Amino acid sequence: QVQLVESGGGLVQAGGSLRLSCKASGRTVSELIMGWFRQAPGKEREYVASIVGTGRSANYKDSVRGRFTISRDNANNMVYLQMNSLTFEDTANYYCAAQGFGTTTFDYWGQGTQVTVST
Hints:
Mean pLDDT: 96
Helix content: under 10%
Order of helices and strands: EEEEEEEEEEE
Radius of gyration: 13 Å
Distance between the termini: 40 Å
Number of strands: 11
Strand content: over 45%
Shape: globular
Number of helices: 0
Largest sheet: 7 strands, mixed
Structural class: mainly beta
Low-confidence stretches: none
């Protein structure tokens, strides 16, 4: 089992930056794909970014590419999401997720951290 705890959310003005952190515990996640998702009020949860176990490759939702950067520190079982040039449309609850062991799906989820961007 893997437990994920997010932190770093908050209130920021449009154009500002935030860095989200995700701490994994229970089992090492160094070989797992890790991702960030978000859910805005009244909307479905959506994919934001993901990173492979080595950290050498990452993918992003089109609307955040060039503004957000996902990274990981396997030595400390941490995953990060650096968010720059934030807009009101980035307002959402952000969730950290981990691929399941031996699966291709995100099976482990954190409780989320709220990001609110004011105009």
